[in-house]
Amino acid sequence: MSLDWSDYDGVLFDLDGVITPTAEVHMRAWAAMFSQLLTDLGVAEPYTDQDYFDHVDGKPRYDGVRAFLASRGIELPEGSPEDPPTAQTVSGLGNRKDAVFAEELRTDGVEAYPGSVALLDALRERGVPMAIVSSSRNAPAVLEAAGVADYFPVVMHGGVAAERGLAGKPAPDTFWAAADDLGVARDRAVVVEDATSGVAAGAAGGFPAVVGVDRGAGEQALREAGATLVVQDLAELLP
Ligand SMILES: O=P(O)(O)OC[C@H]1O[C@@H](O)[C@H](O)[C@@H](O)[C@@H]1O
Question: Is 14 a catalytic residue?
Answer without folding.
Answer: yes
